[in-house]
Amino acid sequence: MQRIAIYCGARSGNDPKYAKAAEQLAHYLAQQGIGIVYGGSNSGLMGIIADTALAAGGEVIGVIPDALHKREIAHSGLSTLHHVAGMHERKALMAELADAFVALPGGIGTLDELIEIWCWAGMGAHSKPCACYEVDNYWQPLFDLLSHVQQEGFAHGERQLLRASTPEQLLASLQGGH
């Protein structure tokens, strides 16, 4: 595994535990020689991920759409920063550049990117693992909803959405695919 795409908030959230978890994950991945592909911003958890990985000597590739570049400030110190026309191009390029996908806590944009890339896996568009990085049960409501979808007969046998609460568990899970 050479690179992991990380989806996360352009805000830091209301509790410092989210920033701390982002720092721990980014530092661990950099130490393991695993590059990060992310949304390209220097704000919120996205900025923390980039700054921490870069400070630890890691590769960080940003992919920022022109519309967001005007609202969010692109990170100026990345290994590579790709400017793309829109979110569709961002998602496609991130999917191409990454070997796995991880969602940290974030908002609707984070959820959108996670669900879409996981859906692509379920449809056979790729076979890369997708996971949620659990911080104090942040993702539990999503897993409750997914269980409800399954129980009500609407799930298609999609690939498993993984989750882990430590960097070590996460990487082992992604490398094992479960």
UniProtKB/TrEMBL annotation:
Alphabetical GO CC annotations of the entry are: cytosol
Which GO terms fall under molecular function for this chain's record?
A: AMP nucleosidase activity
Instruction: From the UniProt record, list the reaction(s) this protein catalyses.
Output: AMP + H2O = D-ribose 5-phosphate + adenine
Tell me which domain of life the UniProt entry assigns to the organism this sequence originates from.
Bacteria
* Pfam families referenced in this protein's UniProt entry, alphabetically: Lysine_decarbox
Query: Which InterPro entries has this protein been placed in?
Result: LOG, LOG_fam
Keywords of the record: Cytokinin biosynthesis, Hydrolase
EC number of the protein:
3.2.2.n1
One GO biological process this protein is involved in is: cytokinin biosynthetic process
Q: Which family does it belong to?
A: Belongs to the LOG family.
What protein does this entry describe? Cytokinin riboside 5'-monophosphate phosphoribohydrolase
